[in-house]
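Example record

One chain of 345 residues, shown exactly as stored in the release files.
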Amino acid sequence: MSVYGLYQPYKVNRPLNRSEKHHRLHQGRPAKVRFFNNEQSVIRINSTYLETVDKFHKGGGDTGLFALLFFMLVSIHLYVLYHCFFVSEKETKDKIIDIVISSLVMSFFYFLSGYFLLKQWFKWTHYPIRFNRKSKMVYVFRTNGSVLTVPWQDIYFTQDKEPGILNDWSIRGHILDSDGETVLETFSLGVCTDKSTTLEYWEFIRCYMEEDVVPELAELIMFCPPAEDRKEGFIFCWQNLLYMGSRLEWLLLPLTLPLSLEASVWRYITCVTGKIPRWPREVLDACRPDPADPVSISAANNPEKMWRLVFANEPRDVWQERYDRMDAATNKIHAVLAKRYGHHI
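Predicted structure tokens for this chain:
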């Protein structure tokens, strides 16, 4: 579970630490990667802007444990109250004491489970990030519903290890004070995974903002979350959590199928109870795409037979055509980078 940014605020008004300086990601400097990975986070891409989900989006089923704990506590508490009122033969004074003590004990656990639940339920369906390629501006939908607007070049990007036992990394963007050292605000890009994949994700975003390879980047997108101006349906919640990279993962289906189904229920509740994020008018006006733009990819372009893609079970010719197209796009991006920066990258 990714903690910082949603469950726990980022630490601000502090100097950059050693790790953030060591793992800095520089604008204008290509990273050495083989692939350009969008991690199925792209909501829409065109020649004007790229919009992605936040790093918490894919893990929307994380609330399951806390939801089960909360409802279990409610059931236990109701049973205690029932027993005190209708079963116990104690005097009224003793019953009241039992009720007060049990309620005080339960209140701590109610707060613990409810705190994590309400960080996702009844909030927003997701927290989009929009990258305007033409104006070189970045728009971040904050967790309180406000919007951070900042120039691309003014953001200090860095890879950062997420707390916990899992080897998860994220890409954080820091807004620094005029001293270039003090962190005033922090947000994360839409990925939380292993370190090498976060670097591939960074290069996808950087190339969109800085290189003339938008059509090629669009070719690398297999499907988009249907989160733009609407709430995701239960089926997509399940598909996104179940998505398989290869048929080898079929061996794990007896485990992943029920777990993903259970998690998709909680993810769907997050979507149903959440509000749809809306960009303010000034952002929409600044990101108005060209009606004749040849690049326009969104959930409307998702495969018709989505389940076959989810289970890595597309016909051989369909899979080969997509692989060849993505491989050609990847090679072209590398050629553009090599021509601009030299073959040493």
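Notes: The chain has a mean pLDDT of 90.
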